[in-house]
TrEMBL record, chains A, B:
Upper lineage: Bacteria, Pseudomonadati, Bacteroidota, Flavobacteriia, Flavobacteriales
NCBIfam families linked: recR
Protein name: Recombination protein RecR
Family: Belongs to the RecR family.
Zn finger limits (C4-type): 58-73
Source organism per UniProt: Flavobacterium croceum DSM 17960
Keyword Iron tagged: no
Length: 206, 206
């Protein structure tokens, strides 16, 4: 691409650094900002700078927070003996939206993925193991992606917890609510038969 | 979406204002910036602010430029008697990439689109008509989108130019190079037969 302006080119280059945003999309976004009042660009850049410079991570569960200890960890009405282990803050938001979980969380900050150069030491695994050892945790629920990286991370942490006095569980895999059986993959379908639940239980929370 | 942080929420809201970026994508982009060094966010916001505050529009052709008169309008080796009328700077870049055009441009800044609240007065049409009247322009080439809005804009400008002493033309519509005939729409195919060109001409610039 030949740019008529270095300022435009620089802006497009920076926006195109974002994942999933190509040069053409970046140009479209930048030209959009040019057509809007200058305040919109100011609000956008201020919000990003403010977020990047002032955001905190909860010292207990490592989720993104405006405070040193997040609102969930600070909430005494929640069950602090049950920890749900997730990859990132998006998973916390997704589980909170279900309103089915009243324990606390532990955010790993990713999953073990040698291809992306992420090993166990870059995740908050030690902090989780220490919490289980010292805080009288009764149950650890793994809620990681059902992918090779998710399973590897799951197993790695499980090995470190299995000799401790704590129950471990993993979220159920099965047919999505609303899905047709014939389109389910066979591994999922197979597991959903092996780990079938009493019919009466399925009537709860529906 | 329930956010664990107001700073995060505000950043996501601002990014989601961009066209084609939903809340989920915005969250993904913002979390990406959080994982990168703080400088990346700084470079991004600086480039956007710098662009928004300092960019200029060429006083002659209205394209985006770092100078009062853009490099194309300032280039004396180009033909200043031929003007190619386009919607925005992306079209200038696309045509410049072909290296087939040696005239100058006129950027309208959009197309007439009552649905989006864009009327002729928001475009640089008066400036174009004045240029044709006063600068001894010999040909105006319309290179607008082949859509209803593009055709409307084209016709609106044509009406204002038709009594002036200037040749008007429009870029050829036809089958794209590399396209299979059977997949072409019938209007395009029909026009490409009506406006066929001598075979020898098609051998040029190929």
């Amino acid at each position: 691409m030949e740019f008529s302006s270095k300022l435009l080119e620089k802006a497009v280059q920076e926006v195109a650094q974002l994942p999933g945003i190509g040069k053409r999309t970046a140009l479209r976004l930048v030209l959009y900002l040019l057509k809007q009042p200058a305040e919109q660009t100011l609000f956008l850049t201020d919000a990003l700078q403010n977020m990047r410079n002032n955001i905190k991570f909860c010292t207990s569960c490592h989720t993104i927070s405006d405070f040193d200890v997040c609102e969930i960890c600070n909430n005494t009405s929640r069950n602090h003996k049950t920890i749900c282990v997730v990859e990132d803050v998006r998973d916390v938001m997704a589980i909170e939206n279900t309103q089915q979980y009243k324990g606390i969380y532990h955010v790993l900050g990713g999953k073990i993925s040698p291809i992306d150069g992420i090993g166990p030491s870059q995740l908050t695994i030690t902090s989780l193991v220490n919490k289980v050892k010292n805080d009288g945790i009764e149950e650890v629920i793994f809620a990681l992606s059902s992918t090779m990286e998710g399973d590897t991370t799951n197993f790695y942490i499980y090995k470190q917890l299995k000799d401790l006095d704590v129950k471990t569980s993993t979220i159920a895999r099965g047919i999505s609510v609303g899905d047709e059986l014939e389109y389910a993959d066979e591994v999922t379908l197979g597991r959903s038969i092996v780990y079938r639940i009493p019919f009466e239980n399925s009537l709860k929370n529906s």
